[in-house]
Amino acid sequence: MKRILIGGTHSGCGKTTVVCAVLAALRERGLAVSSFKCGPDYIDPMFHENVIGTEAHNLDSFFCDDNTLRHLLCTNGKNTDISVIEGVMGFYDGVGGRGSAHSVSMATETDAVIVIDCRGASESIGAVMKGYMDYIKPNRVSGFIFNRLSERLVPLVKELCERLGTRYFGFLPANSLTLESRRLGLVTAAEVEDLKEKTRQLGVLAEKHILIDELLEAAEAPMPEYVPLKVEGLFEKSKPKIAVAKDKAFCFIYSDNILLLEQLGCEIEYFSPVDDKGLPENCCGLILSGGYPELFADRLSANRGMLAAVRDAVLSGMPTIAECGGFMYLHDKIRMSDGTEYAMAGVLNGTVFETERLQRFGYVTLTARKDNLICRKGGKTPAHEFHYWDSTDCGSSFTAKKADGRSWSCIHGDKSLYAGFPHLYFYADTDIAVRFAKACAESGGIYG
């Protein structure tokens, strides 16, 4: 099973640009490619999907044990010629040895290539290389790609690779194709008007300057051993229809969450809170995805038909998962940084407002204080937060705790609702998906 992990020295070193360039080159060669993103990120997989034309997936070792990672890699990559995995932050960055690209590389027995941003450096590049090769052992670092490298320095980095006993996989020169960023990372793929042309040009650069044949050679590896996860359909006849918010405002969706619900027997229908006038017909469950509702607050507020439909559905007891942006949408209103306020669905009595820095950023473990939609009292599940916005009422149905001991109350939860800033990944605990699917079916009178 061919697979390669492309990591980086730090966030912003250019690994997403390099990965998109490699994906484009592989696709231009006619290869079927699957792609993955280490960690909980939503945005980078959107860029992968734009290049490869199919769904991208996540591999997160904080959320999942090693067997689950192997299952997801092998299942989602089984019908392709090669799987390309993009790292997260710096190669070794994680929490207690989990969540890092290094841990995913080791768990899936995948060789790693490290992207180094070479702007403003020459001989010192060797020190960076040696550090990544030796910092933690064992590791599966097999070589390097040199981003923003002057072509006149290619002989130097080749000599450094030979001196340090590692592989040179090529470089990307400085170019104008860099993907734009905002405070939460890259802008979404849907916002880049010329993305197809940009990635095509990146593919041309990769074919010229990156050693694609040698990457394919390094990707050769036996399939890792794993015990397949058993996911059985719950519904023999009628399937519960779950409405999932998906548009430019609500676009943070884990493809594996959707696939797991479909495997359980649910029907998924996407809808747009920005443009549609109401929820899909005959839906009996609702997922309000994360995203950027603040960028479309005026249009969301003006769409009163949708606001009323969502409010009525949630208040009537339709099983609902609302994460981060979806949680914001359920509030009385959104207050912008200039003081402008926009009315939202009014399910939750409170206001969301913008702050100057990330709030409660990173991985947490959630513990339920009472029985609720996704688990019973005392149940625990890993989750992730990444937002600059906050609420006058974040909820108190769960306690969130970080690895350093910090904790806080969060989430509005009851038998039909999970609404809060923390994002859930269903493969961290498949019982969450099962409980949600059953609740949706019972809500529609088609289960039991």
Question: Please, could you describe this protein's structure?
Answer:
- The protein is of the alpha/beta class and 448 residues long.
- The protein has helices at 15-28, 43-52, 66-77, 101-107, 125-134, 154-164, 195-209, 212-218, 255-263, 297-302, 304-315, 325-329, 430-443; strands at residues 3-8, 33-38, 57-59, 82-86, 112-117, 141-147, 167-172, 181-182, 185-186, 241-245, 250-252, 267-271, 285-288, 290-291, 320-323, 331-335, 341-343, 348-368, 380-391, 398-401, 407-410, 412-414, 417-420.
- The mean pLDDT is 94.
Average of per-residue pLDDT values: 94
Number of E strands: 23
User: How many helices?
Assistant: 13
Largest sheet, in brief, is: 7 strands, parallel
Instruction: Name the poorly predicted regions.
Output: none
Shape: globular
Q: Helix content range of the residues, please? A: 25-40%
Radius of gyration: 22 Å
Spatial ordering of strands, largest sheet? 3-2-4-1-5-6-7
How widely separated are the two ends?
A: 42 Å
The helix-and-strand class reads alpha/beta
State the oligomer: single chain
Strand fraction equals 25-35%
Key attributes of the depicted protein:
seven-stranded parallel beta sheet, alpha/beta, 13 helices, six-stranded mixed beta sheet
Per-chain topology:
Layout: E1 3-8, H1 15-28, E2 33-38, H2 43-52, E3 57-59, H3 66-77, E4 82-86, H4 101-107, E5 112-117, H5 125-134, E6 141-147, H6 154-164, E7 167-172, E8 181-182, E9 185-186, H7 195-209, H8 212-218, E10 241-245, E11 250-252, H9 255-263, E12 267-271, E13 285-288, E14 290-291, H10 297-302, H11 304-315, E15 320-323, H12 325-329, E16 331-335, E17 341-343, E18 348-368, E19 380-391, E20 398-401, E21 407-410, E22 412-414, E23 417-420, H13 430-443
Parallel strand pairs: 1-4, 1-5, 2-3, 2-4, 5-6, 6-7, 10-12, 10-13, 13-15, 15-23, 16-18
Antiparallel strand pairs: 8-9, 11-14, 16-17, 18-19, 18-20, 20-21, 22-23
Helix pairs in contact: 1-2, 1-7, 5-6
